[in-house]
Amino acid sequence: MDAAMERTWLGARIELVVGDITRLAVDAIVNAANASLLGGGGVDGAIHRAAGPELLAECRTLGGARTGEVKATGGHRLPARHVFHAVGPVWRGGSGGEDALLASCYREAMRLAAERGVVSIAFPSISTGIYGFPIERAAPIAVREVRRALEAPTTVTRAVFCCFSAPDRAVYERALDAVAGP
Ligand code: AR6
Fold it and tell me: What is the pTM of this model?
């Protein structure tokens, strides 16, 4: 993780980093899962590899999830104590309710975080990899929902957007400047 790449917004309650979300020392990380909740590629694959087979065993008990829904498990071998598995929408051109379903992922993850007393939480850029949601459209939705949740009563004092590349980070930085202020 390149410290020079880190910046904060909203009185340091929102942080932007580039790196591997499985390495972050936060209470909870969010997974960009699919409806089976049984693993896959991308960040989902990385989280399952790092958490170990106990994560898959726990996921098998969850019975899957609908798009826009989020379900919680333990972090097992991860530094994080919780994993919130969010099922983002597959991009189908933007008129199939994708924006609202993506917003639901962030809102539900922040709701679960408050319910479980989570203080710090990190998000990957849900749906913008294999699921094809344009990141320029996804980032402002992510920032708006997390900002809204931080401005309501919550236990969360630190929300981290964990980008996987410098270009993705640049998109989030613009969205944060526009939506969350300095
Ligand atoms: N840390 C942080 N971000 C990551 C990491 C990582 N270790 N690895 C990838 N990313 P994706 P989706 C970024 O494809 O679009 C899976 O098969 C990646 O660069 O992981 O929601 C699931 O099982 C991108 O910015 O998730 C589903 O079937 C972001 O994470 C499907 O993919 C999300 O990309 C979900 O697709």
Answer: 0.97
How many degrees, rounded to 5, is the angle at CA 113 between CA 57 and CA 68? Answer: 70
> Nearest 5°: phi and psi at 25?
-90, 80
* pLDDT tens by residue, 137-176: 999 999 999 999 999 999 999 999 999 999 999 999 999 9
pLDDT range class, residue 44, cuts 50, 70, 90: very high
Mean pLDDT on 118-125: 98
* Residue 126 Cα to ligand 1 middle (Å): 7
- Domains of the chain, start order: 3-179 (3.40.220.10)
- Looking at residue 10, its amino acid is L
Q: Identify whether the C-beta of residue 91 lies closer than 8 Å to the C-beta of residue 132.
A: yes
Q: In the structure, which protein residues have their CB atom closer than 6 angstroms to any atom of ligand 1?
A: 20-22, 32-34, 40-44, 46, 88, 124-131, 162, 164, 168
* CA 69 – ligand 1 centroid, Å: 16
Q: Scan for tokens 């209470």, then name that residue.
A: 27
**Pairing outcome for strands 28-33 and 82-87:** parallel
Is the pLDDT at 112 greater than 80, yes or no?
A: yes
